[in-house]
Amino acid sequence: MTDIRVPNLGESVTEATISQWFKSQGDAVTADEPLLELETDKVTVEVPAPAAGTLSEITVKAGETVEVGTLLGQIAEGEGAAAAKPAEKPAAAAEAAPAEAAPAPAANGSTGAAPTEVRVPALGESVTEATVSQILKKEGDSVAADEPLVELETDKVSVEVPAPVAGTIASLAVKEGDTVEVGGLIGAIAGGAAPAAKAEPAKAAAPAPAKSGGTGMPPAPSAQKALTEAGLSADQVEGTGKRGQVLKGDALAAIEKGIAAKEAPAPAKAPRAPSATGDAEREERVTMTRLRRTIARRLKDAQNTAAMLTTFNDVDMSAVMDLRKQYKDTFEKKHGVKLGFMAFFSKACVQALKDVPAVNAEIDGDDLIYKNYYHLGIAVGTDKGLVVPVVRDADELSFAGIEKTIADFGKRARDGQLKLDEMQGGTFTITNGGIYGSLMSTPILNAPQSGILGMHRIEQRPVAIGGEVKIRPMMYLALSYDHRIVDGKEAVTFLVRVKEAIEDPQRLLLDL
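RE: above sequence
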């Protein structure tokens, strides 16, 4: 007998509710086949069969709440495997019925070797599951090694799963929208690429779905829904997604521009007074992406958990702007990257973190963890939401090294190509609302960090200098901090250190 138990459900999650069983007692099951679905306060998780056999016992019913490790049922091994054997008989009887057996190898391109399984890869530290956002290949399609098969969306980034070998898609075990765990079965590839002569008829026989700008990529489900409702087809819209896929934003933009299309005739409606029902008809309900849901949850958790306060200061940007103006052309010619303000602020923050280590610390239970390394998170806005890639060991990088890293992160963030490990392990975060025109804001902590610096727009303001009023380029700075770790004096000191370094950049060179 093989036990079926409640798996680890993630950090701080100790119990779940059984929302449904997919199998009944006595049913034959195969290894990794979903048996039941568990629902926690965060996610829904399918529990796969740990072995092939027969589901001999179910110990808990749908609707019951169970803890991690609880026995859910048992599988009697052997029966499921035996049940699968009749499927092998046609192959064994190939000599007796060659006409019936012949189509099977042609359908999956198999040469007799066991298919190669495609499984969910490791998704990074603490990430245990993902959502299947797109299936790029269907059963029967030929694939080359490393060709993308499916796209998975985690709470941080989208990841393409490539084919481990060349061959033909023998089976797919997932559908778009499914939630899959690390190591879960995605499908199988029959070894050896199918001959071109046999692959062509299969493709010609199946009418292709609406393509995205003629690229062969089907539109995203949300985009297809919007297009269908508007009476448009995907080939009328230019896609901006990967490989030209039409995204929902593309569809909405096309609809707003009024692209000529066969609009579905709206049923005649009698005139009526404005009402709540009428407003509802002009609303659009869109399911939040996993990334947006996670951003919302993490930001609210930060508010609920930390004793968050914000302190402000302003900084005269004259010295940095003069230095940048003097050397920006030479800097770009030598290093191949523009000299921006982020390198100055990154260096200034590192200096301030060394002077005020509490801002670089975090709480872990009843302990404080002081980090003697400086991994700076740089907030980057994308059309899918805010991401925070991490510049590791920023104290060891030159100005050029920091600028190159940030420029690379910005480009890949907008293209959705950041890796999971590039957004983990930050000790302090910098966010620049000034690029959007923000004059002043209170940035929210990027938990479990205890500090985040907010930069804002530079504007000419009158300031008193040496008893005289002068016009200077000024920027407001905001430091939000966790008051459980950082005292008010430390927060103010940190911000003053940043101000001093920006107003007198030579301090950065002299490590003052």
